C-alpha cells in the first residue's frame, strides 16, 4: 500500500516497515532486539526466537525494496539485559550479511537504558528528530513546523 504524507511517498510493508522510495530508506520502529532474552534474564518464561523473527522480517523488507539505508525509529535494543551473547551475535551476523546498508538509530526511550549499539554494528545514532526531505523522523513524534513528523506511534505494534 502506498500513500502520500507531507509530500513524501510512503510504501507500507507487511514486514512492519515503511519504505521511502525517493530516499531508498526503510523505516523500522521498535525492533527491540533481545527482548525475549531480557525477559528470560529477569525470570519471565517467554518463548525464544523473537530476535530471529525480527531480523528475518527486516531482511525480507530490505530484499523487497532494495533499500540502501535503514532508519530505526527508536528502541533498537530492548534493554541492557539484551546485551547477551545470543542477540548481540544474531544482529552482528545480520549486519555482516547487510554490510552495504547504512544504518541510523533515532534514539528512543529503551535506547536510554540499553545504550547505543556496539560500535562494530556501524549504526549512526542520533537524537530525534532526523530530517529527511519533508519528513522529520522520531521515536516520540511531536509537531514540528514545516515538517511532517513520522514516528513509532503511527504504526505501533
Structure overview:
The longest helix has 16 residues, at 50-65. Helix content is 27%, strand content 27%. α2 (50-65) packs parallel to α3 (85-97). It starts with a strand and ends in a 6-residue tail after the last strand. The radius of gyration is 15 Å and the shape is globular. It has four helices and ten strands. The strands form two sheets. It has a seven-stranded mixed beta sheet, covered by helices on one side. With 157 residues, the chain is α/β, with parallel strands linked by helices.
Layout of secondary structure:
Elements: E1 2-5, E2 8-13, E3 17-20, E4 25-28, H1 35-41, H2 50-65, E5 69-72, H3 85-97, E6 102-106, H4 109-114, E7 123-126, E8 130-132, E9 135-138, E10 148-151
Parallel strand pairs: 4-5, 5-6, 6-7, 9-10
Antiparallel strand pairs: 1-2, 2-3, 3-4, 8-9
Helix pairs in contact: 2-3
